[in-house]
Write a structure and sequence with these properties.
Length: about 190
């Protein structure tokens, strides 16, 4: 409730997200963010293009044992994310200001989250340097885009959502990073 209140209040002034009311925020964004919870893998989670903190902040609130890095390039959104994490006392949350593809990570993330960040092929290029074999990429996307991820890259395998997928307006896409060829532009990283 505190997160929803903060987001709606800041959104009126800073236009952080397209959400215009509490009902839409809860029905669409909060429910869909929390639908990713059973699919989270490991303890290190990245939210690429976090925007107004969806899905990262609701998941950080409900998963205090996991560490969330919210990655956002727009300063006004970064300011909100940092304020929200402090206001909500989320010690498990770090906000990284910058583009995900330029972020240098010491250790790959176990799970990477993304929602409306880029077209499928571009999204894989953006997220690849943040991941290692065994990492999961969880996407909330338009249902008609789900199959576009099948066979898109040799180092990503489409997996069925664990326990099935709930009825949502968006589709949950689960991609596992698997052993594959190195891609041009991949940023070097330490192995797990």
């Amino acid at each position: 409730a505190a997160f929803c209140s903060l987001l709606l209040r800041w959104n009126r002034v800073h236009n952080l997200t397209g959400v215009r009311g509490a009902a839409e925020l809860i029905d669409r964004h909060l429910v869909e963010s929390l639908a990713l919870r059973p699919h989270l893998h490991g303890t290190r989670i990245a939210d690429v293009g976090s925007g107004g903190g969806l899905p990262g902040l609701p998941l950080a609130i409900t998963e205090p044992a996991r560490h969330f890095t919210l990655i956002e390039s727009r300063a006004k959104r970064v300011h909100f994310l940092r304020h929200a994490a402090a206001e909500l006392r989320l010690g498990n949350t770090h906000v990284a200001h910058g583009r995900a593809e330029h972020l240098r990570v010491e250790r790959p993330f176990d799970t990477v989250l993304a929602r409306a960040v880029a077209p499928p092929a571009e999204l894989l290029m953006i997220c690849r340097p943040l991941m290692a074999p065994g990492s999961l990429l969880l996407l909330l996307t338009a249902p008609h885009l789900h199959e576009q991820f099948r066979g898109l890259a040799p180092d990503f395998a489409l997996r069925p959502p664990a326990g099935g997928a709930p009825k949502l307006k968006s589709a949950i896409v689960v991609l596992e990073r698997v052993e594959g060829q190195r891609h041009e532009g991949e940023i070097g990283r330490a192995h797990v």
